[in-house]
Design brief:
Blueprint (H helix, E strand, L loop, with lengths): L3 H10 L10 E10 L10 E12 L2 E12 L2 E12 L5
Length: about 90
């Protein structure tokens, strides 16, 4: 996912988010692009949890990343992570 490498480590290491990386599956992803970044452009990526649900002993975590440059948003991506196993 575009921007995931910049944002996911913060999510996965956040004690409050409590993501069990050892049992994490990357289920789906989608992208919306208005343009591609240009060579040498500074890109700012931000990620946030948009949903957190527990069903059938699994946790479904929705994660959205935005990427902007030159003062404008150019990419929005969404991912669904499934965390298997026992959840609180």
């Amino acid at each position: 996912m575009y921007g995931l490498f910049a944002t996911a480590p913060q999510l996965f290491q956040d004690a409050e988010a409590a993501v069990d990386v050892a049992n994490l599956l990357h289920a789906e992803q989608e992208f919306e692009w208005s343009r591609h970044p240009e060579v040498g452009e500074t890109v700012i990526a931000q990620g946030r949890i948009v949903s957190d649900q527990h069903r059938r002993g699994m946790r479904f975590l929705g994660f959205e990343t935005t990427a902007s440059g030159r003062g404008e948003l150019f990419c929005r991506s969404k991912a669904l992570f499934i965390i298997r196993g026992r959840q609180p």
